Amino acid sequence: MADGAEAMKYTVVLTAAYPPVAREILAGEFDVIEHPTEPQRTEDELITILSEADAAITLLSDPLTRRVLESNPNVRIIANHAVGYNNIDLDAARELGITITNTPGVLTEATADFTMALILALTRRLVEGDREVRESGRCIWEPLHMLGTSIQGKRLGIIGIGRIGTAVAARAKAFGMEVVGVRRGNSMDALLATSDIVSIHTPLTPETHHMIDASALAKMKRGVFVINTARGPIIDENALCDALESGHLGGAALDVYEFEPAVNRRLLSMKNVVLAPHIGSATLETRSAMARIAATDVHRFLKGQKPLHAVT
Ligand code: GLV
What is the location of CATH 3.40.50.720 in the chain? Predict the structure, then answer.
């Protein structure tokens, strides 16, 4: 920043409507430009809205590719309002000296809670039941009606024992489940062959892209339930649909999709599938904490301090 009274004010671009705390932290000292939330911006749209920015808070759906980063040399810090940052070309950011931050930690419990919600909704057929009551306007208790699967004593296989995977394990144990886990990069075969429910908690990287493909699905037990609250492209969605249609899988509960915002149409008519709109971290408390972290790191950086959650 230039010296003296004429010092320029930095501009922070918010690529969406984030919880108000983000603006509150930044607005006193910087110019803040807030753009309306778009489900999916193109690279060109992003290049345009970042052209005025010294710093930005971005969505996990904003494609921060090499072309976008190179087109906006003015942007020195990008705070991704998410724990995942697979939407950002980190190599390009490093080469261009752009600081990237994320929002780890504060969404662990909310996402683990939501994973349990999906496990229970799927195994207890909650969404199907809700639909039935609304459509029929009746509730009939019958001994053989809408029987689900108990989770007590069943084995939960957790792929990715990081912060969120560990928090899911603690919850599943409290429900009487037996829990097995694999770290990223280790063999999943034993977990796949023995788990009644498989839940995914790895980041999306080139190594985990389509990690659950037709061959991984074939290794799973017949009747297995698959849960994904991580990133859609970790599962080959077409292979998942094949395995659901063939009856090899008992069901799936998904919060994330391979081609968001699109959802594979084959999933839409399946009864044994629970589909959530990427809301694993969507509590007022958690989303506000994420916005606070992102804005605080931008604030620190523009004031010459080290951001607390830098990934580059
Ligand atoms: C949500 O999906 C996140 O990465 O924070």
Answer: 11-106+284-302, 108-275
